[in-house]
Each structure stands twice: as structure tokens, then as C-alpha cells.
Amino acid sequence: MTKTGLLLKCLKGYKHKVAGIVIVTVLFVFVNLFMPLLFSFLVDQVVNGEPIENALVAKIVASLGGIETLRTHMYYGAILVMMTSVVICSSIFLRGKWNGEVSETLSQRLRDRLFHHLTLLPYAYHVQANTGDLIQRCTSDVDTVRRVFAGQISEFIYSLSTLIMAMTILFQIYPPLALVSISLLPFVFLFSIWFFIRNQKAFLIADEVEGELVDNINQNIAAIRVVKAFNREVYEAEQFDKRNRNNRDKWMNLMRYIGFYWGFSDFICYSSVLLVVVVGVGYCVRGDITIGNLFVFMTYQTMVTFPIRNLGRLLSDLGKVRVSLGRLLEILNVPAEDIYRGETPELRGDIIFENVSFQYDDGNQEVLRDLSFTIKQGETIAIMGPTGSGKSSLVHLLTRLYDYNAGSIRINGTELRDIQKQYLRRMVGIVLQEPFLFSKTIYDNIRLSSPNAREEDIKRASKIASIDEVIVEFDAGYQTMVGERGVTLSGGQKQRIAIARTVINQTPILIFDDSLSAVDTETDANIRSALQQLNKNTTTIIITQRITSSETADHILVLDEGRILQEGSHQQLISQKGLYQRIYQLQSRLEGDKA
Amino acid sequence: MSEFEEKEYQSNSLDRGLWAKIFRLLGEHKKHLLLLLLFNVIAGLFESTIPLLMRHAINNFTVSYIPSDLTNFAFLVLFVIIVQAVNVFIFLWQAAKVEMNFNYSVRKKTFNHLQNLSFSYYDKTSLGWIVARLTSDIGRLSEIISWGLMDMIWGLSQMIFTAIIMLWVDWRLALIVLFVVPLIAVISSWFQVRILKNYRDVRKTNSQITAAFSEGISGAKTIKTMVLEDNQNREFNDLTTTMRTKSIRAALLSSIFMPIVFCLSHFASAGLIWYGGEKVLSGVLAFGTLMMFVQYSGNFFEPLRQIARLMAEMQLAQASGERIMTLLEEEPAIVDSPEVIAKYGTIFEPKPQNYEVIDGNVEFKDITFYYKKEEPILEHFNLKVKSGQTIALVGETGSGKSTIVNLLCRFYEPISGEILIDGVDYRQRSLGWLHSQLGYVLQAPHLFSGSIRDNIRYGKLDASEEEIIHAAKLVNAHDFVESLEKGYDTDVGEGGNRLSTGQKQLISFARALIRKPTIFVLDEATSSIDTETEKIIQEAIERVLKGHTSFIIAHRLSTIVNADRILVIRKGQIVEDGTHKELMKKRDYYFRLYTNQYNQEMQQRILNERGGFKDETQN
Predict the structure, then answer these.
(1) Could you say which of B309, B453, B487, B577 is the most buried, measured as most Cβ atoms within 10 Å of its Cβ?
(2) Subunit contact B411:A118, Cβ cutoff 8 A
(3) Contacting residues of B for A385, CB less than 8 Å apart
(4) d(CA A428, CA A539)
């Protein structure tokens, strides 16, 4: 997708409003410029009685009943002013309304699209993602784009069309004076561009210094116990004072520039008005222009110079949008996972691995090599092995977080690759090693994937996960909030809640990816036996480093470097020479000591 | 952070007492503030004179044209413009000075105050809350005191000058214009309050969206494995829809407000044309004057809008001010008595020459401690430790072992009973005296961003390079530091996150050790580290503890096998007390704990000692 493509997609159905904004802004500028002309007409022709030169104006006046009627009925003039005012006001209103609608719709669509896309990006992407950077893009870059449509575009059009229209009118009235009036504008423009480019750096520096200050505060408060234990209060205060002072000085310095900018640009702007007045008076005395014309010149001069000053800032802002859109596209252009395509056969839990090999896209070594084994429905199998032996990769394949490179995995006869991902993941419950809980109540966390669960289901799942007795101890029980605004849960408690939210679904296949490690041995055993009783037909795969967890399994696989080293039941393995036996012997020796 | 920022504020009236306190904080910056106000008024005066001068030129010179007069006039106006430009520069700069100086001094005051507050304060106050006080609240307050005040004065002076000039020139025409002023004022304040409220609403939703993004990204793996995509997208969509609705409402409110006020000021202009035009026709009024009034009628709109916005913002700033004041008025829970301060000084002005050197005899005498009265943690606790002994504390979470060391370090004080260090109640000496001789390694080894050298030096600010290396060697950190590309200059990252957990622990040992503390407290980290590093750390601990009175809260029991005394703490009581050998013989709680842990540790070790078992299986 290109930048324009993205914008067009997100503006779908609102393009006429974008056009509306442009039109209304131009209309506003037009009427806004008309107002001084109207005053000039009322002053010169009506009040002062000068002849009407413009044919169109003459026609309009005639249709209103001639200049005399206007003169005897001054409120006609007042009504004209009010009518113009209504046009001005409605165009301001419409512009504001449409600006809001367009920019907010755009940013909603951008945010929704980003969020949706992020949830669909492959597992591999999220393993490597830099969370802070992603959040930054999804928030501040979206906001940069939003601001353009929230007003910067109409501001830009306003400044530009004011300039063009005002100059057209002025040149029509009296070109020589118009030349005078335009003469200083390039300086205003160039000066403001120069200023904003030059000071972008100063802004960045000031921002950075402020960031350092905030960092310092963060670190000090986070480590306040160290500070106090080391009696470093004075030192910390001195360090902070340095940064605090630096921050103050950098910003004051920047503000001095800004003050200079406003002062100096005010000077140029007013000078250009003065120039027009002085030169204009001369023309007026010579009779080249009327007093009313001079008023128009003076008013327009003020109306044009100040927006020109804005153009510099606007241009530098609009440049940022390209960068922001580019950063958003870097996320949106990463191919997403298709979780909706594929078959949805009945899955009961018979799993066959045949010569399965797997290697990560960015790795050069096979993580799993030529694995073959069979699991029958209702069996519990334990997988043991050292760190990096491929245990986790193996179960990741089963939920298609990654796809295997060679061989075949079949569940009840269907090749895994052909099964719809969404369906598969609903059938295979997996408790991850480091589970993530959402900042909701415990209750909502447990029923996360089954929103229709009844209270007794939630309670039962918690009991299976041996967490019920912990939850009811909290002041708010199941309604306790998780995370910063609520209780801080220990690693073991988090794991057990994650188990509860997984077992609540009664999936035919259940996987524990070393997810009982933060739970003590006794609770571990309780959870496993509760699961056994729950459903005898569930196929359970447990990755563990504890022999007590594998003891009761029907079948045990010992993995190393992606291969199966040992395989069999607990009884078989303890009588085989090898790792499993060594661990077992260690344990029984200790138990012997105790007795 | 934003959550704390957006805390609702109920009262709508201005709290005079609070603002008086805030202005007292301004103290030293009063000079800048006065300068700011002065130049502000002058600039306002000039701003409204410039159109008057131009008008004068058109009215006069077109009627009676004298070139030299025009030249003189041009120079006069040019002079005025230059003065005005300088004015603008000066008052902007003064405003920045007031803002930044106020910002600086309140931050400094608050930060220093925070260093004095006790652990109990930090237990109940979240990091985010405090940081928001020091950043956004102070920022908002100084902004309103400088720029807000400036805008207010500017607007007021412009309105007053314009009104005076108009009334002076023609009071009847002036009244036509002034008639709409109160209307605009009422409408502005009505709208501004609502616009601001809407704006706050929008910001609140915005921070919810940011939080949702953060959850969606951090929880992506969970979302995927639990097939929550549709669910999450729906919830997110609800949020962005709320955001859209609220933002559009806010935009609508502002876009209704502006036209209404414009319309009102045009109404005044129309009235002028009608009434004034007839006056001009009948020859009572010069039309230059009429035009001047038309121009002036627009001058009230902007200042009124500014003032209305400011009044609304004052409410926000008041809430900020209130929170800052609450923080500044928070009393530290642990303070030294006046007699102690007289002898030993305060935290910020210590008198270290009066500090007695600690020998290291520690006694807990009949100590009772609790956070909540219903849940006592220690009751009539007694413990006597001889100088140089290593004491290991073992027990479950909540048994009271952390409380014992926290009391020893005087991060909390006992509710009753006394703690004697070298026979003297430690409250008879200062906090600085105790903490300057303490070596403390926390459970979470928090490092500061900066180099490894800086982090070790944190323990002793004037440490020489040799001392730093010596300390690193003692804790077995030297080798790994040297193996890093930049050695001791390696940046450890925020909170030390570029180092592994084990490395962080070693550096935090070195940091404590370089102080040559007389009392050493070690709260061992629970997080698992690889076998290799664990061995290194254990060696380091043994070496570090030698010769000091030391307390270890141990999670890995293998660490404390050599301790002089192991205390098993349960429910605030010492249930077992002795050496490892003695306790193992008892075959009680410690024995069970130890064997269980040993068992697990060994299992993991075997599993991960790859080479070892592979040989065996191949045989």
C-alpha cells in the first residue's frame, strides 16, 4: 500500500467532506475579503457620495432602488453587513464541523486498521517487536496525520487563498499600490520558514533535555530505596539540579528565539502596513485612489501579512505527515496471518508427528529434526529437555504459530497445514510460559475467550487451576483488578489464572508450555489430578523440568537438540540408563534421606 | 501516567488559600513577574495605538497633504513599531523566564522533599503518580502563572484601552459596541468551560486508547493463542468509536462558538453602520471616526475568548496546584529528633564529623511492628547479633524476615521496643549516620543508567579507579566487565537492563561493598540465573559478607550453608536458630525446605548440564 492509497482508503465516504472543507474555506476567505469592500462601498459611495465605477456594483445598486434609497435607509447597509456575516459564520461552522468529522473518522479508521493488523501479525513478528516503538507509532504518528485534517489543511488553504484573492482585488483596484503591498510579503514568508527550520533543532534539543529530566525523576523514584539506603539524597539532589537547570536554560534560550521571532515578524508586518499607508496617502492625494480604497488596502494588508507568517510553520508541519504515514505503512505492509482460511474437521486429539523438521526463518539451524511420534486421544504426555532443546517450538507447531518445514503432522487424519488457524487454536488450548493478563478484573480475565461462561464455570475453572482459594482472599474477590490499578500477582498466581482461562474452554487438546514452573510441586500435582478428573478424553501435553510432573504421564519424551533422546513411560525410563534415570535417582535418594 | 493526570476535579470555585500558597512559592520570581506585567501592559497599549495612528494618517493627510508631515509621521510610526517589536520580545522572554524559573524552583523543592520522605510513603504511592506531579502538574501550574497571567493582562488591558478610547471619542457609538461585550463574555465562559471539559474527556479516552494499544501489542501472543482477535478488535473499536464521538462533539462545540461570537461582533458593526452612517450623512460625525469604531468593534472578541479560556484553565491548574501542595506538605514518617539534628545535622546538611563508627553489635529488644493493627508482623521480637556475625533469615513470604532488615535499616521504625546498635538506641543517632555505614543489596538490583564505573562509584562517590576495580574483583565482576567491549565504560541502560540479571546483581554487590560498610544487608534476588553465574555469585556473597555484621534474606539455601546463624522465621517468630549442620540434624522445617530446594536445583542442573548426560546416554 502507498501513502496516498492508505489515506484514500481511510477517507472512504468522506471525500466529499474534504472537498467541502476546501470549498467552504475558500468561500470564507472570499466573504471575509468582501466585508472590507462592503464597508468601503458604504463609506465611499453611500455616505460620501462618490460615483460608482464598477458596472456590476451599479447594477446591484440599481436593483435595490438606487443609491438614494440606500442613503435614506441606512439600515439596508446594516442588513447587508448582517447577511455577509451569516455567510461568514456558517462557513466557519461548516468548516469546523467537517474538519472534526473528517479528521476523527480518519484517525479512528487508522487506529482500528493498525490494531486489527497488529493482532493478525504472525507470532514471529511479535517475538521480535519493539513494544515502545510500536505504541509510539500507533499513537503519535496517527495524531500527526489527524492534525493535518483537523485544521492544518484548511489553515493552509485559508492563508494561500487569502493571499491570492486579496492580491487579485488589490491589483484590480490600483496595481502600483498593490506592488508596494506585496513587496514585503516574501520577507515575512522567508523569515518564518528560516526561523522554523533553524529552530527545529533547538526544539529537539529542548525536548531531549526535558526527556532526560523526566528520565532522571523516573529513575530516582524507582530506585528511591537504593538512594536512601546509600544515603545519597544530597548527591541525587545535586544531579537533579544539574538537569533541572539545564532544562530551564534550554527552554529559556528557545523562548528567547521565539520572542525574537514574534517581535521581528511583528515589525515586518506592521512596517508593510505603514508602507502601504504612507505610499497610499500619496496616491490618494493625487486622486489615483479613493479614501475607501486606501482603507481596503490597509485592511487587506493586515489580513494577508499575518497568515503568511503562518505558512512557514504549516509547511514544516505538513512535511512531518509524510514521515508519519511512512512509519505507519512499515507496520501495515508486513503481511498478516490468515486465520480464517482452511478446513474445520472434527478434532478429537489423536496426533501423529511424522519426520517433522522445523527451522526459524531467520535461523540457520534446525530446531526440530526428523521427529516422529504418536499421541492418542485422552493421553497425557510429558516433554522434558534442557533449555533450547526444541520443546517450546514443538508445541508452537501444534497451534500453527509457526509452520513446519518438512514432514507431516496430522490431527485425526487431517494435515495440520490445511486446518483453519482460528479453528485450530480454539481446539488446542495452550498456556504460555510467560502468560499475559489483561488489565481487567480476574473474572473477566478468566472468561476472556468464552464470554458466555457462567459464574459457576469460572469458579470451576479456578478450582481446577488451584487459584480459587487465592482469589476469594482478595478484598474484591473475583472482581479484583489485575495490574497497576489492582493487585500485583505473583508469577505463580498469574500462571494459575492463565491455566483457569485456558481450561474453561474444555478443548480436546491442552498444552502446558512449562507453565507450572512458578507453582510449587504440591499445587502442580493438584492441578494435574484435577485436570485428569475433568475430562478423560482430553489430550494433554505438558512441558516440564520436574520429574514429579512427568511421573503420572502416559508417555514421556526426552528431547535434546531437536531430537528425541528417550521415549517411554515413567517405569520404562527409570530403568533405562540416561538423564531421566539420573534425575529420578537423585530424587529418591533425597526422599530416602528424609525417611 | 495520564490516568493520574486526568483525575476529576469537582470544585468550580477558586480556592483563595491555595492560590495564596502558590503565589508564595513564586517568591523570588516576583521581579520578573512585575516586569512581565509592565511590558505586557505597554505592549497592549501600543498594539491598540497603531491602528489609531494609521487611521489618523488617512483622515488627516488625505485632506491636507503636507509631505514633510507625512515623513515625520512615518518616522513616528516606525519608531512606535520598533518599540512595539522590542516590547513583544521583552515580555515574551520575561514570561518564559517566569515560567521556567518557577518550574525549576518548584521542581527542585518537590524533588528534594521527595528524598526526605520515608519508605512508607513510597509503599502507598505509585511511581506514576509522583512522576505526574513533578512533570505535568508543575508544568501546567507554571504555564498558567506565566503565560496565562500574561494573556489575561494583555486581553484586559487591550479591552480597557479600546473602551476608553471609544468612550472618549464618541460615547454613543461606544455604547453600541460595548453593548455586545457582556453578551460575548457570558457566551464565551459558557462555551469555554464546556470545551475544556470535552477536551479533558477526549484526552482521557485517548490515554485509554494508548493503554489498549500497549495491551494489544504486549499481549499479542496471548491474543493469538486464545483466538481473541475478533474480541479484542471489537473492544478496541468501541473505544475508538467513543473517541470519535467525543472528539466530534468537542469540535462541534468550538465550531458553534466561534461563529456566534463573530456574529455578535458583526452585529455591533452593523449597528454602527446604521446609526453612525445616518449621523455621518447628517454631518454630525466624521466618517473616519465611524471606520475606526467599526475596526474597534472586532477588538473585544479575541481578549474575551482568551479570558474565558483562562478562567476554565485556572480550574485545571488549581487541581494541579492542590496535588503539588499535598505532596509538599506530606510529612516524612521517620524524622530525627531536634537534639539528634543539632548534633548530627539533617539529610541535606549532615555533620559527618560527629558520626560514631559502628562496631556492629545489633540487638532487637522486644520489638513489635505492624502496618495494620489487626495484622501484627512482629510481636515482642528479640534478637542479639554479635559484631561480625553472618545471620541468614529464612522463611516464607510474609513471615516477617524482610521487616526485620527494614527495621534494622530504619526504613521503618518499631511501633514499640528498641533497636540497639553498639548498645545505643539508633533513634538517638541520625538517619544519615546509619545509612552512611550501611551496605545494602536489594532484591531487585536497581542500577542507574550510566556506565558500570559510575554505578559502582555510587557506593563511594570519591572512589579511585583502583578501589572500583578492587571492589569488582572482590565480587567476581571484574572478568565479565573486562570482557565487554567498553569495559567499565559500558552503559548499563535504563535500570541496568542491558546487563543480565546475574551481572546486575554482581554490580550491585560491588556498589555496596565499595562503601566498606560496617553492617551489610543482602536481600537475595529470587529470579533464576544460570548455574555458572550462580556459582560466581555465591562465591562473591561469601567473600562480601566476611568481616561485617551481615544479614541475608536467602532464597537459595545453598547460599547460606556457611552462615554463622540461620534463623527460620515463621509468623514473626524465630522457630529455629542455629548453623546449617545443627538445623539439618533437627530434621524439622529447615531440613524439609532445604532438601526440597536442593532436589529441584539438582534436577535443573542435571537437565542443563548437557555434556554430562549426553555422554552417559551414548554409552
Answers:
(1) B309
(2) no
(3) 607
(4) 9
Q: Are A149 and A268 in contact (CB under 8 A)?
A: no
| Burial grade of B597 (CB within 10 A; 0-12, 13-18, 19 or more) | middle
Task: Give the list of residues 6+ apart from residue A595 with CB closer than 8 angstroms, or none.
Answer: none
pLDDT in tens, A253-288: 888 888 888 888 888 888 888 888 888 888 888 888
Domain architecture of chain B: domains with CATH: 2-329 (1.20.1560.10)
Q: How far apart are CA A27 and CA A33, in angstroms?
A: 10
Residue B583 phi, psi (nearest 5): -70, -35
Are residues A401 and B224, on separate chains, in Cβ contact within 8 Å? yes
Residue A578 and residue B350: Cβ atoms within 8 Å? no
Give the separation between CA B576 and CA B560, rounded to whole angstroms: 15
Nearest CB to B135: which of A79, A96, A217?
A217
Q: Residue A357: enclosing H or E segment and its boundaries?
A: strand A351-358
Tell me which residue has cell 488596502: A297
Q: Which residues of B touch A236 (CB under 8 A)?
A: 115
CA atoms of B98 and B146, how far apart (whole Å):
6
* Yes or no: domain A1-174 corresponds to CATH 3.40.1670.10: no
CATH no. for A351-594? 3.40.50.300
Q: Residues 6 or more apart from A96 whose CB is under 8 A from it?
A: B251, B252, B254, B255, B256, B258
Residue A382 contacts B, CB cutoff 8 Å: no
* Cα–Cα separations (whole angstroms), residue A518 to A486, A493, A514, B401: 21, 8, 9, 21
- Residue A382: burial class (beta carbons within 10 Å; 0-12, 13-18, 19+): buried
Question: How far is the CA of B373 from the CAs of A473, B404, B411, B413, in angstroms?
Answer: 19, 17, 19, 15
Q: What does the domain layout of chain A look like in residue ranges?
A: 1-174, 175-288, 351-594
B201: which residues sit within 8 A by CB, 6+ positions away? Answer: B246, B250
Dihedral sign from CA coordinates of B529, B442, A435, B398: positive
* pLDDT tens sequence across A225-263: 888 888 889 999 999 999 999 999 998 888 888 888 888
A483-487's contacts with Cβ under 8 Å and 24+ in sequence apart are A483/A437, A483/A438, A483/A439, A484/A439, A484/B126, A484/B128, A485/A439, A485/B3, A486/A439, A486/A441
- Among B62, B93, B440, the residue with its CB nearest the CB of A284 is B62
A433 touches chain B (CB under 8 A): no
- Candidate from B218, B251, B610 with C-beta closest to A96: B251
Q: Average pLDDT of B119-142?
A: 84
Predicted ipTM of the assembly: 0.83
Q: CA-to-CA distance for B496 and B503, rounded, in angstroms?
A: 9
Put simply, whether A198 touches B (Cβ < 8 Å) is no
Q: How far apart are CA B444 and CA A445, in angstroms?
A: 28
Q: What are the residues facing B565 on neighbouring strands? A: B391
Asked whether the beta carbons of residue B277 and residue A46 sit closer than 8 angstroms, the reply is: yes
Report which residue type is found at A259: G
- Which amino acid type is present at position A174? Y
Q: Smallest CA–CA separation between A206 and chain B, in Å?
A: 12
Q: Which residue has the cell 546463624?
A: B565
What are residue B376's phi and psi, to 5 degrees?
-65, 140
Nearest to B616 among A127, A485, A578 (CB): A578
pLDDT in tens, B171-222: 888 888 888 888 888 888 888 888 888 888 888 888 889 888 888 888 888 8
Q: Which residue bears the cell 512559592?
A: B25
Which residues 384-423 on chain B approach chain A with CB closer than 8 angstroms?
A: 409, 411
